[in-house]
Amino acid sequence: MSLSLIQALHQDNTLRFADGRPCEIHVLAPPVTAPVYQFSHAVRAVQVEPFSHGKLQWRLRKQVGASLAGRGFDMAVVLPNSLKSALVPWFAGIPKRVGYSGELRTAVLTHPLPKPSKKAKPPMIEWYGQLGAYFADVLEFPVLHVEAGMRTEACTEFGLQPGFLAIAPGAEFGPAKRWPAGHFAEVATGFLLRNPSQKAVLFGGPKDSGFCGEILGLMPLDLQTRAFSLAGKTSLAQAVALMSAASQLLTNDSGLMHVAAALNVQVHAVFGSSSPHHTPPLSSRAKVYYLNLECSPCFQRECPLGHTNCLKKLDPKMVLEQLVPASQGV
User: Fold this and answer.
1) Which keywords are on file for this protein (predicted)?
2) Which of 283, 267, 254, 280 is nearest to 323 (CA)?
3) Residue 30: closest CA among 7, 46, 8, 9
4) Do residues 66 and 92 lie in contact, with contact meaning Cβ atoms separated by under 8 Å?
5) Do domains 3-138 and 148-329 have the same CATH topology?
6) Which contacts qualify for 33-39: CB closer than 8 Å, 24 or more apart?
7) What is the pLDDT along the chain (330 residues), one digit of tens a residue?
8) Contact predicate 96/133, CB 8 Å
9) Model pTM?
10) Which CATH superfamily is domain 3-138 in?
11) Domain residue ranges of the chain, discontinuous segments joined by +
12) How far apart are CA 78 and CA 85, in angstroms?
């Protein structure tokens, strides 16, 4: 979702070099997201953060800042809202440091901005866009590019041909965002019956492997040979490359949902506890399934009412009716 801001910066005529070249954008990101930026034409270079999640690591952040100090950066845009995330550009002495205020970090930002209201929860691309003073009318949907050779290599390595159904059933945030296993299995079964030469492939991290196995176990035995899980078996870069070869993606509100949308893959996105207004899949080819119950969105990790009806009552047939044939998806 940060790519809309990055693309706007890259296209901003006021930020161009004297010879007309667009500004040079470098990204410092954690290892769980850094690989995504290599697929953006607006990003010049990506550096992986060496920091441990949730730890201050003052000395290490000072070292990273010092390594950036002599590289001539004019501006740093700090996307996370924590104090520790603002320390590196401060240590680097970057003259303009932009970010939302909070966590006592006003002193290390040169341009602290007031955070948008939590109650309003604007779409995330607008939340990020305002850090560059860009508003909705100039923010384009995120775009990722996968070279044909990389797509072919990934498909060959995992024994796939373009057109398969990708499924991202995980929910790192919590079970209140996760569609039931039986619902995923029903849609996968319907796809395989309609596309006898294709496969259904489940994606996710190592923590998702158990839930993926549950989904596979609920499918008819004669179809299980054409459905398998890659949860925990691919790098993020490989997952992105494979996603570009899918006919469509069935997913919860997740990171891979945003990846597929940026790749212009048909997306079927199921929302429960989160809001399709705040974090929608940004693509004209995306379809959102959301019951908009009185109790949702609650933005909780687990259903505070104990029933998760916002997901259980979302009928898989709604998605099955919208699936596209494998030949039309790529």
Assistant:
1) Glycosyltransferase, Transferase
2) 267
3) 46
4) yes
5) yes
6) 33/236, 33/255, 35/235, 35/236, 35/237, 35/240, 36/144, 36/236, 36/240, 36/259, 38/237, 39/144, 39/145, 39/146, 39/240
7) 999 999 999 999 999 999 999 999 999 999 999 999 999 999 999 999 999 988 999 999 999 999 999 999 999 999 999 999 999 999 999 999 999 998 789 999 999 999 877 677 789 999 999 999 999 999 999 999 999 999 999 999 999 999 999 999 987 777 778 999 999 999 999 999 999 999 999 999 999 999 999 999 999 999 999 999 999 999 999 999 999 999 999 999 999 999 999 999 999 999 998 889 989 999 999 999 999 998 988 888 888 888 899 999 999 999 999 998 877 666
8) no
9) 0.92
10) Glycogen Phosphorylase B; (3.40.50.2000)
11) 3-138, 148-329
12) 7
How is residue 323 written in tokens?
């699936």
C-alpha angle 226/328/281, rounded to 5°? 90
**Contact, 27 vs 37, CB < 8 A?**
yes
Structure tokens at 320: 């099955």
Nearest to 77 by CA among 5, 4, 137: 5
The dihedral through the CA atoms of 54, 57, 61, 64 has a sign that is negative
The Cα–Cα gap between 251 and 214 comes to: 16
Closest CA to 213 of 242, 190, 233: 233
